[in-house]
Amino acid sequence: MVTSAYYGARTIVVALHGRAFPTDAEWDEYLVVVRDAFARHGESGLVRGLAITDGGAPTSRQRALLVEVLRGERAVGSVVTSSRLALGVGRALSWIHPEIKTFAPRDYPRALKHLGLPEAEWPAFAEHLAAQRPLIHVEALNEIDSQLHAAAK
Predict the structure, then answer these.
(1) 3-state secondary structure (DSSP) of residue 5
(2) Nearest to 133 by CA among 29, 52, 62, 28
(3) Where do the structural domains in the chain lie, given as residue ranges?
(4) Tens-digit pLDDT profile for residues 71-107
(5) Closest Cα to residue 53, out of 98, 95, 99, 111?
(6) pTM for this prediction
(7) Could you give the CA distance from residue 107 to residue 93 in angstroms, rounded to a whole number?
(8) Buried b (16+ CB within 10 A) or exposed e, 94-103
(9) What angle do CA 100, 104, 106 make, to 5 degrees?
(10) How far apart are the C-alpha atoms of 82 and 106, rounded to whole Å?
């Protein structure tokens, strides 16, 4: 799992997952980034979360830690995956935070719209994601790129 934060019109905490579940150390790092984003911009209501995953998803204990961190915060997020397991985890989180939605990679533009990221920032956000690619292989990113490339034609 690789975690980063994009700062633009919205602060987007990004979690990239391969097929493996995140380790507790990786999840702790993610929670640090989430806490920092909310400490900086939480009152503005502009913090969002994006998970792009090939199947890796937080364990029940890790989800409980996230729910604890988000307590009292407006949690808006998009989970982009083809994995049934990750879709299920995203749906489970939406029971507590209804503004967390799941999307297939082909629906990535809808996921960004759900986050409220202005289309004018999509290229900058794509560059942010591209900078993370050397750190982890996530097949869903390739699917997203294919969809965006086809849509641009």
Answers:
(1) strand
(2) 52
(3) 2-152
(4) 878 789 999 998 988 888 888 888 877 888 999 999 9
(5) 111
(6) 0.91
(7) 19
(8) beebeebbbb
(9) 130
(10) 9
